[in-house]
Write a structure and sequence with these properties.
Length: 331
Amino acid sequence: MLPHGLFAVNKPRGKTSVDLLNALKKLLRNGSKKIKLGHGGTLDPLATGVLVVGVNDGCKELSKYIKCEKIYSAVGLLGYGTDSYDSEGQVIGIGHTQHITKEMILNLLPKYTGEIMQIPPLYSALKMDGRRLYEYARKGIELPKDIKARTANIYSLTLLDFTFEHNFKPPENKITNKITNKITNKITNETTDEITDEITDKITKLYISSESKNESNNESKNESNNESINESNSESNNESNNNELNNNELNNNNPIFKIHVECGSGTYIRTLVHDIGKDLNSEAHVVELVRLQQGEFKLGINTIEWEDCLNIENIFDALKKYNQKTFPLTN
């Protein structure tokens, strides 16, 4: 007997929300009997934490969880910007970090509290002309129109930590032609023209230097990349940009900052971290993201660990508890 209802699982890092649903469907399917599953809002593959899952008639209740308040903790690594705004993406911007202090970040938080404007990341589930944005990005397809800024509501934003001592590593993926052509040409907004121009300048210099190296020695992909980059940029008027990739501060000791965010639906934490990096005259991307709460579901309190889902009795127990408030048990 499979009850209808809702339960929440702690999504592990590396799985997409769809991956998790497909795995759950295999666990819960009874013979050839069909089962309907859905979730109450996508979590990034990098993210962990609360994912609300609807079973059969419980899927009708998922819309309220998509729209409800959510709570996250996020860690941003300063000094590197990526096309996905997280550590899964490719580097499209670099910045200095030695000037950044805890007080600078604290002073920025009021700017990002309340109703704000955000440009969704290219690697997101937002649809454009019937196709999700991440599908354009992964296939290298040019966007049919610009990604426009949209309203987001952040009810509370707290800095939990700022430190140079951590185990997070810089992103390994390098810039590609796809990023140069597809990202910078389509992420637009009147209030961010200067930021976009700054990114474009850095990308162009980095990409040209990368292409020059590949043409001169296509078989060599070693530590001489940084020298080639500096040589190809020798005519640049900005000496600091020429040396950015081999700057001593751009290493594993770049600082991180950890934030606690209480927000409404449609808020992109990756964009928040990215924008904070820009306002610090640097770059930043997400290296850790945890959804701590979604509606009444709280991580570690009324959520199931993914490993515990392998015993379907744990799922049944969670559904039965929910059914006591919402649905009768059905076959």
